[in-house]
Amino acid sequence: MNLMPDFNRFLAAVRHKETDRVPLGEILIDYSIQSQFLGRPVAADDLPGQVEFWSKAGYDFMPITVSMMSPGKVTEESGITRVLKEMVLREKPGTTDPKAWNLEFTSFIHERPDLDKFPWEAAADIDFSKLHAVKELLPEGMKVIAISGKIFTLTWMLMGFNNFALKLVLDESLVAEVFERVATIQFKALETIFGMDHVAGVWVVDDVAFGTGPMISPAALKKHVFSWYKKVGDRCHENSRIFLMHSDGDLSVLMDDLIAMGLDVIQPIDPSCMDMAKVKKQWGDRICLIGNVSNELLRSGSTPQIEARVKELLRDAAPGGGFALGSGNSVPNWAKYENYTAMRETCLKHGSYPISIR
Amino acid sequence: MADHLNTIKGAVIGGKHGEIKGLVQQALDAGLDPGGIVNDALIAAMDVVGKDFGDGKIFVPEMLVSAVTMKAGLEVVKPHLAGGESQSRGTIIMATVKGDLHDIGKNLVSMMLEGAGFKVMDLGVDLNVDKLIDQVKALQPDILGLSALLTTTMPEMQKVIGELKAQGLRDRVKVLVGGAPVDRAFAEKIGADGYGANATEAVELARRFAGAKA
After folding, report:
1. Which residues contact A351 (CB under 8 A, 6 or more apart)?
2. Which residues of chain A are within 8 Å of residue B103 when distances are taken between CB atoms?
3. Whole domain around residue B129: which residue ranges?
4. Does A168 touch chain B (CB under 8 A)?
5. What CATH number should be reported for the domain holding residue B182?
6. Domains of chain A with bracketed CATH
7. Phi-psi region for residue A149, left (φ > 0), alpha (ψ -120 to 50) or beta?
8. Least confident of A10-24, A187-201, B22-36, B146-160
9. B180 with B112, same domain?
10. Can you give the pLDDT at residue B212?
11. Is the pTM of this model over 0.95?
12. pLDDT per residue over B96-111, tens digit each?
């Protein structure tokens, strides 16, 4: 089995072509998993270690976050957290509770005057150092995909979800303006990203659905979110980059809109509410799919269960290309390491084209 | 009379929060029974909203605006209710369990329960077992609603139920669980009294529990 990174392998899958094997794809693999794989500690600041993991584990690209927020959760490391901390301490000196500047606990834009108080300029100061530094470390054939461009989640987190949802109906122009300011920052970052040859795509990590369906109406998503993402897609394609998106939840009623906005890849096809085989059948010829071994299975399942599930996915979604295998979200520290290994190894062992699993 | 009630109901369903206070006042001025306005217009409207949400006809923003509209209407009618009528259908503590910061789903359920006439005390997120038990003792709710979004925090629900048993409180409170990774089988396994897949189901269960108590 060829483990050498080859971004053309992944690119072929995106273009619905079969190559030597089904590629692997993740937006995030916890450092504890990377550490176990390499047999030595890999930390957030150990870029060579991260590159070594992604390349040795059989991935054709490594994801690197360059955005106003880290995917999934806001951490003390996030740029936006530093900006908000400065603002809170300026307004309320002596504040010690980190929740006061954590977007997961505190929102900052409630009414129109808050728009101008928010430090947009500072928030737009995005750190690209990791993306620059990785260039010299990448082995031949390997590329980077920049995790960037989140618009929906960042907007509602800035406003607080309840307030955002109410204002979407009661003061739509305010919401539209926050969307625009967030999008403007993300677009500026994109232009920097496009200047880097080793970055082959942009992966927007933005949950737009619950397990029961869209978080806001499809019409509102189309008007306020997908219109921006259509422009992201256009800019990606004008710059010969691929455009990927991650969203949890049931995207069924949104799939046609997601495809129409120029999305090349959707991940992870949330296994708690979507069926990969059905998605492949209905939309698989128009968009590449990455996923979707359930995280619950990675946490509590056995290795034979993981192997069986990977084989099902290879059988149902891999023929004809347009598929990369991965988790049903990301690989967190609470996934069993042996299950992560089983997922990866089963794909490498049984994912050679043509797929012969029946 | 029916016209007033239908107009109020329509205003709540349509989220006409700017008009609702005037409409409720007009109904009161016309001599309508305040209890009827609450039950047959305001709460009845939220039943429709909940069903539309459950059916995917409306989404969170529309549902929240209806809930806010309903509350505004309730404020106008409350001073006119007789003592017994102003009592809630029951008291509910809502909380996201320890280690979990997610609250969108919990907030929706809280909002819908309030819309259905329950008194809701939302304790927030990341609540450990001891804090929850203390609050159950202090507030003596009819129902304890627990939410979790993560598979890693779900076991906290079982710990809460275990501690309720250990402290002899289990028979005094119904435990309702929900959240993305939670399902009926898990709820049964940990000994919860009910599982709501969404806000509408949670309200239905709460009503059933309240009815059983009455």
Report:
1. A21, A22, A314, A318, A325
2. 161
3. 91-213
4. yes
5. 3.40.50.280
6. 7-64+140-350 (3.20.20.210)
7. left
8. B146-160
9. yes
10. 62
11. no
12. 999 887 888 888 888 8
